[in-house]
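Hello, quick one for you while I still have it in my head. A protein chain has come my way and I'm curious about its shape. Can you walk me through what the C-alpha cells say about the fold? No rush at all, and the record is pasted right below.
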Amino acid sequence: MNALINLFTPDCIALDNPAKSRADAFAAAGGLFSKQSGLEASAIVDFLNAREDLGSTALGAGVAIPHGRVKGLKQPIAALLKLKDPIEFAAPDGEPVSILIFLLVPEKATQQHLEILSSIAQLLSDADARQFLSSANDPIKVCELLQQWGKTK
C-alpha cells in the first residue's frame, strides 16, 4: 500500500515559497498545518524545531524531511514546500535545501511514522522525482505525483 496516497492535497503544497531561512520555512509549514489540523501554528513550529535540534532532517541533494510526533494530532498530516531559493539546512552533503516535505504524526504512531518517512525518503531519493518537484509549478500535478508514488515502484 502507498503510505502517501491519502496524505497530500493541493492545499498542503506551496510552490515557489519565499522562505529565506529554516525559521521562515517552518513558519510557512506551521501555517499550512494549522489549517489542516486546527493546531496552533506556533506549537507546530515548536515541534519541528525540537526535532530539528536533535539533528538535521536534510537528506542531501537539496531535500529535507522535517518531521515529528505531535500530541493531540488524530492522523498523519504532511505538507510540501518548494522554495524559490535554496536555504542552509545542515545537509550531510553541504548542499542547501529547496524541497521540504514536512510530516507530522500522532504521538503514538511509531510504525506508521516510519512507513511514511520511508516512502518519502524513497521518493526524494529518486532523481526523476526530485527533478519533477524542482521544476513543478502546479500543486495539483505535484499532488498527483505524491499520491501515485509507490503504485508502480
Observations:
- The domain at 10-148 is CATH 3.40.930.10 (Mannitol-specific EII; Chain A).
